[in-house]
Design brief:
single chain; alpha+beta; five-stranded mixed β-sheet; 52% helix; 10% strand; globular
Length: 310
């Protein structure tokens, strides 16, 4: 692989894990050459950090500083990676990441400019994890990834959010606790300190056995709503509405019913759709959104009115 070049096609003969490692090496090399700071997360990283048994990952997750998101997209775009076009159906694309695909690779890339659970700001979270980064050997190339505790933090947050599908909130918290079960007692204490400094203390409180607080910020309430089963856009919009007052609440409600065009296009993966297709998708979503609105606002109201989270 040439320095600074992302691979253009995946060899058919290598195993899926090897494909992940080859892609990680190429993407890391390309981003470094463009002077974009990045961290590989999820995938094979928790395996290498000794947090779980090796398993296959269908995509490569890359976390970048929010200020570098456009530069990262441009760098990967130069090597044939394009934004995945959503179906325009009922499922919204996660607003915290862009999914990129390449005609020559079976592994997609999720490019994250933030990560759910870091409720005190994406820049703060990235900078703290970056300072603790440790090199990872991917197909003979050195790439950047969080250290063992940083990886445990990201994996625990991811497990809670993934566990929200079809589980109770307690079940989601249990999934988060299962991730950190591999840590020694002193590591668990250090993880609590890391969660504080990286802005994930609110989300990690039930996992770490710490006192829980009522949601007081939109990102915190959006996290609770996501664990309660709300979709990413529904969660954020309902959080903004429930924590606003007066005229700001009217604006928040209008945003739920009719989001900004750029926000709608990005969330629903319609980047390459025509104006007519976007308008049609807006009206299709409007009917579904109005039907779900009472449930989402009721869920948000309940979460803000109760004391500790359950």
């Amino acid at each position: 692989m040439e320095p600074g070049a992302a691979p253009s096609a995946a060899p058919d003969t290598v195993q899926r894990r090897d494909q992940w490692m080859l892609l990680a090496a190429g993407i890391g090399t390309a981003l470094t050459a463009s002077r974009v700071k990045y961290l590989l997360i999820k995938g094979a990283v928790p395996d290498v950090r000794g947090l779980r048994e090796p398993k296959y990952s269908a995509d490569l997750d890359v976390l970048v500083h929010p200020d570098d998101a456009l530069a990262a997209l441009a760098t990967l775009g130069a090597w044939g990676w394009t934004t995945s076009v959503g179906s325009g159906g009922d499922t919204a694309r996660a607003p915290h990441a862009e999914t990129l695909v390449h005609k020559g690779w079976p592994v997609s890339i999720d490019l994250h400019h933030t990560f759910p659970g870091f409720t005190e700001g994406a820049a703060r979270a990235f900078e703290v994890l970056w300072e603790r980064r440790q090199p990872l050997d991917a197909a003979g190339c050195v790439v950047d990834a969080p250290d063992r505790l940083g990886t445990a933090l990201v994996e625990s947050l991811n497990a809670m959010r993934s566990g929200a599908l079809g589980q109770s909130i307690d079940g989601s918290h249990g999934a988060g606790r299962a991730v950190i079960g591999a840590l020694a007692d002193d590591e668990a204490l250090q993880l609590a300190e890391l969660a504080d400094s990286a802005g994930a203390a609110y989300a990690m409180a039930p996992v770490l056995g710490r006192p829980e607080a009522r949601a007081s910020k939109p990102d915190q309430l959006a996290w609770d709503l996501a664990l309660a089963g709300a979709g990413p856009f529904e969660a954020r919009a309902a959080a903004d509405f429930s924590l606003s007052r007066g005229s700001a609440r009217v604006v928040a409600l209008a945003r739920i019913v009719w989001p900004r065009r750029d926000e709608f296009v990005s969330t629903y993966g319609l980047d390459h759709a025509s104006s007519f297709e976007v308008l049609g998708a807006r009206f299709a979503r409007l009917g579904r959104g109005l039907a779900r609105l009472p449930r989402g606002l009721s869920r948000a109201r309940a979460l803000t009115q109760r004391s500790p989270r359950s």
